Amino acid sequence: MLVAVVLRLVPDLSGEFEIADDGKDIDREWVGMRLNEFDDHALEEAILLKEAEGATVIALALAGEGADRMLQSAIARGADRAVKISHSAEGGLSSRAAAPVIAAAVRQLGVELVLTGVQTPEDLFGQLAPYLGATLDWPHVSAVGGLRAAGAGIEVQQEYSGGVAATLRLRLPAVIGVQTASQPPRYVSGSKLRQAMSEPIAVLESDAMPAADTAEILALREPARSGEAVMLEGDAETVADKLHDLLVERGLVRA
Amino acid sequence: MSDILVHIETRAGAIQPVSFELLTAARELAGATGMKVEALVAAAAPQEVAGQLGAADRVLAVAHPALEPYTPEAHATVLAETVRLRDPAIVLLGYSSVGLDLAPNLAVRTGRPLVSYCVKLAAAGDTIEAESLVYGGKLRATTRAKLPAIFAVTPGSYAEAQTGAAPPEILDLTPPDAINKLRTAFVSETRPPPGAVDLTQADRILCVGRGIADKDSIALAEEVAAALGAEIAGSRPVIDAGWLPKERQVGKSGCKVKPKLYIAAGVSGAPEHLEGMSGAELIIAINSDAKAPIFRVAHYGTTCDLFDFLPALGELLKSGGTG
Q1: Which of B109, B232, B296, B302 is spaced 20 to 30 A from B43 at the CA atom?
Q2: Domains of chain B
Q3: pTM score, two decimals?
Q4: Which of the residues B11, B67, B105, B120 would you substitute to probe the A interface, choosing the one with the greatest number of A C-beta atoms within 10 Å?
């Protein structure tokens, strides 16, 4: 089974960031980027499938800053090959815009199963897995928490609210949006990572056109600060004291 | 083209709360635009739930055994066919596992704009201006989409519409032929094991998030939870890391809880988490990031280090007791 796992870098907003001058995006020049956390789970699930079934795993990404390093890390994790898609679009692409470009690469590579993270924090115009599935006219499932090969196809666990899950069987080819891998993403040693930094990355030239974004961003800003929590100030012991008093006052604990 | 189509989500024969919330959003938009509200129920026996959808002007009922239990392919096929037949100006879906499957699929099949993670929709001429929470709730985006368009609305953004009254009209639609040639099949359903903790019944919850940093620190939180008579719970990153069992997850892919007391320790408060706990009576948040979205739903908050705070609170609780 030839499996592609689509990896994406996303802005890391746990650190410092600013809104761009036009007020419609974050300032991408300064913000740190990291592997989309759900893509990390998708990669883990692909490697587990390789270990269980002998699948061949291609780590796939759109060309761009940081893509080489991300793909090489995927090889350190256990991917067999890394491919980056060189395309004509300038700047970042939304999942909707990227879908035709990635779909064309998937066809060109002869992939039977595509895994990617269920969503990114910036999927304002929708998520990649269903966009890819619909573009390729392949069956697709999102919010997947584990999968396995089953006969000529695969079985996936789709998760719903309240701890309910369903097992669905899909014929291949198919696209899966992974939410949680069957086990937490594995740790890779620094030496293994360094070793992978010399791994070659194949370049796939794509002349597929990105889709147009069909809605317009008017503004991006921090939400209003109204309705905020009452902040308890002081060192940890002072705050714990204040909070304890509050719980006593509410009858939740005894003095 | 003049109507609003609401995709109704059912599970085990019950309409999901988010669908009633979508009906409220649809009624608001209908009031502003004069559009009618149509609710699509695609199920094995849609008549069984159609009677609860009085908030719609019309129920569109599509009956087929392949529609229940849910598979993305069967429902995407019916939804696309319904949109082709009815040509609604606005399609509303919930941002749930089901909405994640269906909304982008419909956008590709129809070429219509899609805006996700919506918390508010407002009609403006032949467009909709939507407010969405992105980047884990840290930023709010305002977008404009020209109609016809599709919107995926985050659960908890609107109050639930009234149930009970019957809809004025039920229109039966025939499922498309493609529903007989599906490549996706339902195999089985799993539910939390009997005897597993049921967080929805807990009246005190101490929930730990990514800020707890490692598995060993869970013990620290468990000690405080025990002293407080609270159930320990985790946000998605903690559950995904395998530090707590799945049945202790709060949020979109876990439980929706409404305890008397909810302490969130090291939880950032992404919209997916907030939809599971924002109804708690008293919410206390501990997070070193003063900009964490959890502080927008918490009643009390502190930015002090949780590894200092939890032991300090634990000591005070042990010298007192639970009320």
Answers
A1: B109
A2: 4-180 (3.40.50.620), 199-319 (3.40.50.1220)
A3: 0.94
A4: B105
How much is the ipTM here? 0.95
Q: In what order do the strands lie in the sheet with B58-63?
A: A215-221, B139-146, B127-134, B114-124, B149-153, B90-94, B4-7, B37-43, B58-63, B170-173
Would the CB atoms of B309 and A236 count as touching at under 8 Å? yes
* Alpha-carbon gap, residue B23 to B245, rounded angstroms: 34
Per-residue pLDDT of chain B (323 residues; tens, 9 = 90+): 579 999 999 998 999 999 999 999 999 999 999 999 999 999 999 999 999 999 999 999 999 999 999 999 999 999 999 999 999 999 999 999 999 999 999 999 999 999 999 999 999 999 999 999 999 999 999 999 999 999 999 999 999 998 778 888 999 999 999 999 999 999 999 988 888 889 999 999 999 999 998 888 999 999 999 999 999 999 999 999 999 999 999 999 899 999 999 999 999 999 999 999 999 999 999 999 998 999 999 999 999 999 999 999 999 998 865 55
Q: Quote the CA–CA distance of B210 and B214 in Å, as a whole number.
A: 8
Check CB contact under 8 Å for A243 and B293: no
Chain A positions touching B296 (Cβ under 8 A) are 223, 227-229
Residue of A nearest to B73 (CA): A139
Q: What is the 3-state secondary structure (H, E, C) of chain A?
A: CEEEEECCEEECCCCCCCECCCCCCECCCCCCEEECHHHHHHHHHHHHHHHHHCCEEEEEEECCCCHHHHHHHHHHHCCCEEEEEECCCCCCCCHHHHHHHHHHHHHHHCCCEEEEECCCCCCCCCCHHHHHHHHHCCCEEEEEEEEEEECCEEEEEEECHHHCEEEEEEECCEEEEECCCCCCCCCCCHHHHHHHCCCCCEEEECCCCCCCCCEEEEEEECCCCCCCCEECCCCHHHHHHHHHHHHHHCCCEEC
Cα–Cα dist B113/A97, whole Å = 12
Q: Which of B67, B97, B189, B273 to mutate to test the interface with A (most CBs of A within 10 A)?
A: B97
Contact B30, B36 (CB under 8 A): yes
pLDDT tens sequence across A8-65: 999 998 888 899 999 999 999 889 999 999 999 999 999 999 999 999 999 999 999 9
- Where b means 16+ CB within 10 Å and e means fewer, B241-250 reads bebbebbbbb
CB contact under 8 A, B302 and A232: yes
Domains of chain A in start order, with CATH, are 2-205 (3.40.50.620)
